[in-house]
Amino acid sequence: MFDYLIVGAGFAGSVVAERLASQLNKKVLIVDKRPHIAGNAFDHYNEEGILVHKYGPHIFHTNSRDVFDYLSNFTEWRPYEHRVLASVDGQLVPMPINLDTINKLYGLNLTAFEVEGFFQSVAEQVPEVRTSEDVVVSRVGRELYEKFFRNYTRKQWGMDPSELDKSVTSRVPVRSNRDDRYFTDTFQAMPRHGYTAMFEKLLSHPNIKIMLNTDYHEIVDVIPFRKMIFTGPVDEYFDFCYGELPYRSLEFRHQTLEQEVHLPTAVVNFPNEHAYTRVTEFKYLTGQQHPKTSIVYEYPQAEGEPYYPVPKAENAAIYNQYKKLADQIKDVYFAGRLATYKYYNMDQVVAQALTLFKRLKTAQEEKALV
Ligand code: FAD
Ligand code: UDP
């Protein structure tokens, strides 16, 4: 009899598994329908020996010391600050939009103070910032919105930014200084030996058994367990009883090139050209030295593996119905990006999983007192 069945070996499932096994001595079975651990963060050495991220570029960044310290038990780190260029009007310019972006794009020589004035002069008055269009036009006006955000978002999400919650484009700041880092978090680093190696350590406790290539439906009635942690899509768990939650998918096209370096930076975004949104060169992320280089193109699509919950009010309303059901069932707990339908980064999923573990621990302690 296992104490816990954990569905999904991504960040959510693996962190809860590790805590339950090492801190509460629970016997855990973790199953994943894919042939590998690490969920969407899975990386591997390709046929040429280059470390690549199978499901697109994963860059670790967080402001949470707790999350960083926790993961540091399972990996060493390689300091890494991510930088992105966008292809706009025939030029490659820094993204997020900053002072240099504006000067390069318009052939100007503004100071930080002047560029803030420029943003204010082009910004549109928006009575209430609600959508992903509102966020951008109210900060940098319509022209920059159209050059950098409108078409990228249409490609990525298959809908206009005016239909998406403001939280989506709010992920990307606008700066009047020359800081060209994509993220400004306190901790920015990559697992030195990759994500999969970190997950191998996370899941190495003898109380944890791993079953891959296994949909949990195949074993749920066969292998006995007391409680379940579910990290797959929440609507699927409840047999879509309130309808399907929309998820956005991507097709990743990987390529290895006979050259040492291909891009001028780790990622180039293409808001207005091509069917793909961005191209990533992995060696920038991993620091690997190799005579060849591997890149990946991301082609957004509606069908396929669910990668992104789609943040908009009507989807949140459907999710809330599922959440009510989820809160009612005893001994099944939901965590992670798909099971809680949240557009979370890795560190947010780790924080959520650690919080769930604390809840389970407290519940056990309270039970012991009765
Ligand atoms: P997942 O990693 O999706 O794990 C869930 C697992 O459950 C999967 O392995 C799945 O196979 C399994 N599963 C589902 N259903 C079943 C079932 N029925 N039976 C058995 N197993 C099942 N975050 C960052 O912080 N930085 C980044 O740069 C970044 N880049 C990203 C780029 C892309 C293209 C994508 C898609 C995401 C990115 N993320 C990034 C987000 C990051 O991938 C997630 O936050 C994190 O991986 C979510 O972990 P999870 O455990 O919730 O879900
Ligand atoms: N975005 C955009 N243009 C860009 C970069 C981002 O319009 O050059 C918008 C787009 O809607 C995207 C969102 O901002 O989905 C969030 O971008 P982020 O880079 O955080 O996306 P992720 O890495 O999660 O795919």
From TrEMBL:
Domain named UDP-galactopyranose mutase C-terminal: residues: 147-343
Cofactors required: FAD
Keywords associated with the record: FAD, Flavoprotein, Isomerase
InterPro entries, A to Z: UDP-GALP_mutase (IPR004379), UDP-GalPyranose_mutase_C (IPR015899)
Enzyme Commission number: 5.4.99.9
Gene3D superfamilies assigned: NAD(P)-binding Rossmann-like Domain
Protein family per UniProt: Belongs to the UDP-galactopyranose/dTDP-fucopyranose mutase family.
Stated name of the protein: UDP-galactopyranose mutase
The organism's taxonomic lineage, starting at the top: Bacteria, Pseudomonadati, Bacteroidota, Cytophagia, Cytophagales
Gene from which the chain derives: glf
